[in-house]
Amino acid sequence: MTETLSFQLNWEPNGFQSPYFLAREEGFYREAGLEIEFVEGHGSPYAAERAARGRADVALAGASAVLTTQSKGFEPLAVAAVTQKTPAAVYTLRDVFGEPLTEPAQLAGRTVAPSATKTRILTAQLLENTGIRDDVELLDVDPHTHHRVQHKVVDGAVDAAVGVVTNGIEIGREHDRTPDELPIGDYLDVYGMTLVTGPELARERPDSIRSFIRASARGWAAATRDPARAIDVLVGRNATLERNREIERLKFETAANRLQFTPYVRDHGWGAQDPARWRRLGETLSETALLEGSIDPDAVWTGEFRPVDEPIVSEYADRVRPAVE
Predict the structure, then answer these.
(1) For domain 88-186, which architecture applies?
(2) How far apart are alpha carbons 178 and 199 in whole angstroms?
(3) CB-based contacts of 55: which residues, under 8 Å, 6+ apart?
(4) Burial class (CB in 10 A: 0-12, 13-18, 19+), 78
(5) What tens digit of pLDDT does each residue of 138-151 get?
């Protein structure tokens, strides 16, 4: 008997999410007894809250959004860490910045425009750790701009912007200019995307969560071994992505090779979570005005549903190592 699960995405389908579409196309979810209904999203906070409220069975959301959702009085539960590093990145164009951007210290004396509150917080922490927070004009987030911060870089209105990895490469190719990116995940030890559910599903259908994690891990492994196939499936679902096929593939390969496949995954397997990292993120967020109430980082995640008896989960590194090394 097949069970239907709704999967709330954090955004509209793109290369970062291609493994899940590949998992459905290849029948991995079906073999696990699941039928997956994808729901396009409006950001990680929206996705995390939907799962916490029980309006979506599983959601894809950034770790910081999970904690901010908890601060609102909800009970989101991260059941797997998909990417061990945040996808946030500072990016610019070489002719705007005046030199290659290779380290955070170069942002001193510069103006930086973030596209979202979460990435602004991470950038502020990066600057604080580097000792240059007071030397950088980190602009507030304009809720009406979002992707328009890219245009500010193109026009030279700011020295750099903050978005996600590949944003800089994308505008560089579009305008035939040389881009540079500084991945924040290389400097801050915080999680990126997680799989989230709510208390009711966790309590009543634990086997469904385990099956979803197992099939999703298979999807990530298959996509890592054959990125072209993963993007073919993604484009087949949304033909408008055809013109950006190369960028979508780059998004996925960056996520798979740099954000997901880390020493921690090699040692602990796919989806593993570290309580110390959740606590560090909680400390970072607690120093901002983003939280609406108290948080408990130890209560916002669990490894209970991760099927460590499955080789695709526990021995994930061995399954994908030739593709990423």
Answers:
(1) 3-Layer(aba) Sandwich (3.40)
(2) 47
(3) 8
(4) buried
(5) 999 877 655 578 99
pLDDT under 50 in the chain at which residues? none
Residue whose C-alpha is closest to residue 82's, from 69, 66, 103, 105: 66
pLDDT tens-digit map of 247-288: 999 999 999 999 998 899 999 999 999 999 999 889 888 877
What is residue 208's three-state secondary structure? helix
Pairing type for strands 88-93 and 58-62 reads: unpaired
d(CA 116, CA 122): 10
CATH 3.40.190.10 corresponds to the domain 3-85+191-324: yes
User: What distances in angstroms separate CA 131 from CA 125, 127, 185, 286, 302, one per listed residue?
Assistant: 10, 6, 18, 20, 34
- Dihedral sign of CA atoms 95, 98, 101, 104 in order: negative
